[in-house]
Structures are given as C-alpha cells and as structure tokens.
Amino acid sequence: MKGYYPRIKYILLTISFFIYTCSFAQKAGFVQSLSQQNRWVDSVYDELSTKERIAQLFFVRAHTNKGRAYEDSVEQVIKEQKVGGLVFFQGGPGRQAALTNRYQRAAEVPLLVSMDGEWGVGMRLDSAITYPYQMTLGAIQDNTLIYKMGQMIGRDFKHLGLQMNFAPVMDINNNPNNPVINYRSFGDNRFNVAKKGIAYFQGMQNEGILTTAKHFPGHGDTNVDSHADLPVLPFTRQRLDSLEMYPFREAINAGLSGVMVAHMNIPALDTAKNRPSTLSRPIITGLLKDSLKFKGLVVSDAMEMKGVTKFFPNGEADVQAFLAGNDILELSENSERAIKLIKKALRKDLITEAEFEAKVKKVLAAKYWAGLNSYKPAPLRDAVSYVNRPEAKALIQQLSDAAVTMLKGSTPTLRLNPLAKTAIVNIGIDRMTTFQQELARWYPNSMLFVVGKTTSLNDLNSMLVNLKKYDQIFISIYDTRSRPQSKLDYNADIKFLIAQLAAQPHTVTTVFANAYTIAGLPGIERSGALLACYQNTDELQRAAVKVITGQIKPMGKLPVSVNSFFPTGTGVMLP
Question: Is the dihedral of CA 291, 294, 297, 299 positive or negative?
Fold first, then answer.
C-alpha cells in the first residue's frame, strides 16, 4: 500500500498531460476544426440577418493615432454595419488594447481583430520592439529560432487582444527591383522560403493566432507595386506551379490557417483582361480551393488598393472578390456600399446559398477557434512592458547573431590585429554607431570616423588621404531609411570612397542594409572580409562585432542572389 498513492498520482498526471496535449493539438489545427459541427457557430449564424451575415466578411481599418473623432467613426461603423473584423494600423500598444476592448464592447458578434505584423506588432505600433525583417531571417540556418519568433509574436498578439496576423510573406523575391515585397521576403530560394514560412506560422498558430500567408499565388517577381497599379505576372503555368506557388502548396500541406490573395493580373491562370487575381474565380476557387485543396480562410489583399480598384471601381471590385471565393474582404473603399451590392448579387443567385453559408460560418469558426466565443478583454496595465519583455529582446539578439553572413574572408582577414593603428569608419549615418562603439573596445588604438550622406567632396578627399595612414580599416555601411531598398541613396563620391577603402590591404566591410545594395557598390568585393547584416539595428551591429572579434562564428547564408560574386547560398563558414 505504501507505493499505491504515488502510482495513482502518476497515472492522474499522465492522463492530465494527455488531455492537455490532445486539446493543444486540436487547438493548433484551425482547418481541421472546420470539419466538426460547431453549435456556437450555428447559433450565431442563425441569429444574423442576410445583411449581417455579409457584414461578417468585412474587415475595416482602425488606428490609435488619429484622434477621438476617427476612433468614434470606426465604432459607429461597428455598431451600424456590424462588420466582422478590424485591421489595426499605426498607434501604440496600450492605446490599441484599450480601443480594442472598447470596440469589442460595441460589437454584437465579437470582432476578429487583425494586423500586418510581419516583424511583430512593432511593424505598426510605437513603443514596441521589432523582430528582424524576413530577408534577415532568410539567412538563418536554424529554423527553430524562426518558430520561437512566431511563438513570441503570437503571445504579443494575444496580449493586445489580436487574433489574426496577416503574415508571413511567402513570396519568393527573385526580382531585386521589386518595390513592394523585397526585404519582406525570406529570399529567392523556394525551399528556404517554404521552410521558414512554415516555421513562422506554426509558431504563431500554436499560440492560438490565425495566420495568413501572402501574397498568393506569388508577388515576388514584379516591378509594380499593387498599391499603385495592377502588376502583370507573364509567366507560364508550369513556372508558376514549380516556383511561385511552391511555398504556398507546402504551407497548405503543413496546416496553414489562411491565405491572402494578391492583386495581380496572371494571364496563364485567368485570360480575362485586366482582372486581378483577387477577383478571379479560376484562381481562388478553381486553383487555390479546388486544385490545392485549401480549406482555410481566403483573405483579399486590401480592397482600397489601385491594383484592384483601377479597373473595377465603385464597389464592383468588392462584389467580384466575393463571387471569386474570398472569405474575408479587408479594407473596402466603402464597406456599406459593398454590403448592399453583395446583397443584390445574392438575390440574383450569382452564388449558391451553400457557398455563402460556408463563407460566413468559416469566419465565425475562426472566431470560435481564436476563443472569441468566451471573449475576455485585453489587459491594459502592462501592454508596453509585455511587448518589450527581456526574453523577447534576447530572442531578437539570438536571431541577429544567427543571421550575420560572411560573404568573403577568412579568420586572418576578418580578425585584424587588435594592437594596430585602426580606423573605424561608418558611412551613411551622421553619428557614432553601436557598431563603432562596441568594436572600439576591442581595438584600443583606434579612431572613429563618420561619413554622412551629404559629406562634401573636399571632406571625402581629405578623409581618404588621412585614412591611408592607418594600418587597417573597418567600414560599416548603413541604410537609415525606414524601408531598406535595393539601392542605397548614396552619391557617386561616397561610392567611390567605399571602393577606394575596400581596395586597401587590411579592410573589413560590414553592410547594415538590404543585401541587394551590395550590387550597387562596385569594388566592395575587394575587401579582405565582407559581412552582410541585412538591416540597420543595434542587435545586428552587436552581432557583427561578435563575429569580427571571434565571440561567435558567422552562420548565415545569403538568401538572395546579389550578383555573380555573391549568389544565393553564399556564406563562408570559419573553422
């Protein structure tokens, strides 16, 4: 009898763990939940009028930085139109949590609250840390770090009262001049994009957040921004199947909960002239739902964008998007008008009652899966401190450390003599940087130099003469723009200075900018060692210093092809 109670306790603990893991596994699969009868969904659906059912498919814009009048106008839309969800943009964490609670109180059916949080809530909110851009993540070789990031971001979303993230981007960016995807993509290798996108969304989904891979069937090889016009994807069906759609197909098979459809004209998939993919039944219903067997939420890209309204104005785009197979229409130009037009389309039997019912119930099922059937307000006290918690900051540093990519060099050319006369030169920023200050601690016989974008030619020439007196040089190159584009906004004189310094015998160059910018800096490849760090953050600057000083090894691999010197996959591994 002495060992009987501990044995019973062990069995009870085992059963409890089994129940917990089973419920967690079920929670992790939104798509799987759709095959189950849901009494809450059925009861809510039955209580709604046709107009209210249509409204469940519409998500409207929300901000917390536009003042009380704007906030009141959104609340009025929620009360009068009874829309299904919100898409939050700029604001602050605490303000957003408070406003979300207010809007949820105003809604008869709980709102599905969403955001574009590709690099976390900091993509939209002030006072919140940001995770690395997806191109930076594309260099990382350990995808468990990407999964952990998904978990962290999922927790941030839940804490602020959000249930859905319009992420990850699963476009393959194989066009360096892409004005809208670019650094938002994991890169130009379809396998890498698929694996990292899956790790990211699984981390979020396992925290109970609905995810939305975008922009189907692939926005990576365009040179037109669909916010401003309608891009054309001129490729063959075979090319689209094997390349652009590969990550989406893999993600669907891995249990993806949502897909966002791009505004692109794709003749190989739909021959209708000037018809965006968002409005194409052959693409959404025929390809995505029927051929690829996707059962989750199909979300349109923003319906206010010129890529969709240019050829389908005055609400026609909303109707066509509805008929094409989208389940959620986000950011309509005029949701009230769109709801009325769709109601007319239903009266004309342009879509079956069964298909309409399935759309609405899918949105309601998403609300149930996200826990909105037993809604609890977001906590307000610690919103800012929570999204800036120490473990999140530590993960960002881990991600940054793992992303640093050595494009050229060896241990001797990277780890320069700590006692030699050293110049540490930053270019493109008008102040001392974290990289300079951290590196100077390891090189006591060093001098720091700053080259701004507007430094005069005379000053550049004088500096070049002066720098030739130094035994070794560390160059750091920065892009200070909020969107790190493929070409640096440097003049020819500054680019000439970079080339001259790179050609000196002992030079290490580190680029804290979009990897594509390296192609626009001829001569940079002559550096003794060259590091790609992808973006301008303190974490990546610290990571670069760790690599240079031998504290960590460079583990990243280039996620995009820069030029003939540095193709996709370049990455020197030090012994």
Answer: negative
Say which residues have a Cβ less than 8 Å from residue 6's Cβ, sequence separation at least 6. none
Tokens of 558: 């280039």
Q: Is the pTM of this model over 0.85?
A: yes
Q: What is the pLDDT of residue 126?
A: 96
CA distance 368 to 273: 39
Q: Do the beta carbons of residue 261 and residue 302 sit within 8 Å?
A: no
Q: 373-382: long-range contacts (C-beta < 8 A, 24 or more apart)?
A: 373/40, 373/110, 375/104, 375/110, 377/101, 377/104, 377/161, 378/97, 378/100, 378/101, 378/159, 378/160, 378/161, 379/97, 379/159, 380/94, 380/97, 380/98, 380/101
Q: Give the whole-number percent of the chain exceeding pLDDT 70.
A: 95
CA angle in degrees (0–180, nearest 5) for 158-136-488: 125
Q: Where are the alpha helices (DSSP H) in 352-433?
A: 353-369, 383-387, 390-403, 411-414
Q: Comparing C-alpha atoms, which of 342, 168, 161 is closest to residue 260?
A: 168
Those residues whose C-beta lies under 8 Å from the C-beta of residue 392, and which sit 6 or more positions away, are 129, 152, 156
For residues 455 and 460, what is the distance between their CA atoms, to the nearest angstrom?
7
179 contacts: CB under 8 Å, gap ≥ 6 = 223, 224, 225
Which one, of 88, 93, 51, lies nearest residue 71 by Cα? 88
Q: Which two tokens stand for residue 515?
A: 């990897």
Across the chain, mean pLDDT equals 94
- Kindly give, in sequence order, each residue whose CB lies less than 8 Å from that of residue 71, ignoring residues fewer than 6 positions away: 63, 64, 99, 102
The residues with which 259 forms a beta bridge, in sequence order, are 213, 298
* Angle of helix 390-403 versus helix 143-159 axis, rounded to 10: 150
Residue 6: exposed, middle, or buried by beta-carbon count in 10 A (0-12, 13-18, 19+)? Answer: exposed
Tokens linked to 536? 């301008």
Residue 27 — very low, low, confident or very high, per pLDDT cuts 50/70/90? Answer: low
Distance, in Å, from the CA atom of 63 to the CA atom of 87, rounded to the nearest integer, reads 9
Of 24-33, 178-187, 196-205, 522-531, the poorest mean pLDDT is in: 24-33
Ramachandran angles phi, psi of 482, nearest 5°? -70, -25
Residue whose C-alpha is closest to residue 148's, from 86, 97, 98, 200: 200
Across the range 320-326, mean pLDDT stands at 98
**Distance (Å, rounded) from C-alpha 81 to C-alpha 29?**
31
CA-CA distance, 328 to 574, in Å (whole number)? 49
DSSP label of 91: B
* Predicted pLDDT of residue 516: 98
Tokens 């003049």 -> residue: 491
Average pLDDT over residues 554-562: 98
Residue 340 has pLDDT above 80, yes or no: yes
* H or E segment to which residue 253 belongs: helix 246-253
What is the chain's alpha carbon radius of gyration, rounded to the nearest angstrom?
Answer: 26
